[in-house]
Amino acid sequence: ALLLRSVDGGANWTSILAATSGETVLSGVWGDGATVVAVGYRVPGTGATTAFIMRSSNGGANWTEASLAGTDSRRLNGVWVSGGTLVAVGRETVSRDADDNPTYGGLVLRSTDGGASWTSAIAPGAELQLASVWGASANALYAVGTRGTLLHYNGTSWNPATQGWVQISSGVSGTLFDVGGSSARDVFAVGAGGVVIRGHR
């Protein structure tokens, strides 16, 4: 796994993080000033994935790994950072059938203290995996994933069992891979088959 940085508009790149322990995948990164957060997963010999979060507070010169509880059978795919609020999304194995085939739930992790501690929740929706997260602010978040999943968090409550996280109809059935926008009311998502959707709220 490798993380590269350019400080000259992309003309030149240098490695600022290289993870070499086992089969390690970095799948998402976000920078907010000097704070840079990278997320991903490791695949140990057992084959079960283990989620991890790396954080730098000095532009990538030094990195520390967050202490996460219950990381086994989890995978992180995307991250968003603003000030002291960090949000990471991915998937978590919620059950297995008689043949040991997994059923996944959408995983959301949040820190409000700069990454010192994290809370987790299973996002609403059956058998989904979240691929990306973006926010206009800490109280206006969007996440996308498999089966055309589009979620919105309005800051009411972090517990997705309440109205804080709302599943919005995206109008597509394929996987949405990334989400971003210019404001909380103007949001874009892209996905399988070259689809681009735009939402106005």
What would your notes on this structure say?
It is a single chain. The chain has 201 residues and is an all-beta fold. Helix content is 0%, strand content 57%. It has strands at 2-5, 14-18, 23-32, 35-43, 50-56, 64-65, 74-82, 85-96, 102-111, 119-122, 130-137, 140-145, 150-153, 165-168, 176-183, 186-191, 195-200. The protein is globular and about 40 Å long. It starts with a strand and ends with a strand.
Summarize the structure.
By secondary structure, this protein is mainly β. The chain has strands at 2-5, 14-18, 23-32, 35-43, 50-56, 64-65, 74-82, 85-96, 102-111, 119-122, 130-137, 140-145, 150-153, 165-168, 176-183, 186-191, 195-200.
- Enumerate the spans where pLDDT stays under 50 for 5 or more consecutive residues: none
What is the overall pLDDT average? 85
Q: Sheet bearing the most strands, described?
A: 4 strands, antiparallel
What is the strand content?
over 45%
Strand order of the largest sheet: 3-4-5-6
Number of helices: 0
Topology order in helix (H) and strand (E) letters: EEEEEEEEEEEEEEEEE
| Alpha carbon gyration radius | 17 Å
Task: Give the termini separation.
Answer: 38 Å
Chain-wise SSE layout:
Blueprint: E1 2-5, E2 14-18, E3 23-32, E4 35-43, E5 50-56, E6 64-65, E7 74-82, E8 85-96, E9 102-111, E10 119-122, E11 130-137, E12 140-145, E13 150-153, E14 165-168, E15 176-183, E16 186-191, E17 195-200
Antiparallel strand pairs: 1-2, 3-4, 4-5, 5-6, 7-8, 8-9, 9-10, 11-12, 12-13, 13-14, 15-16, 16-17
Brief descriptors of the model:
201 residues; mainly beta; four-stranded antiparallel sheet
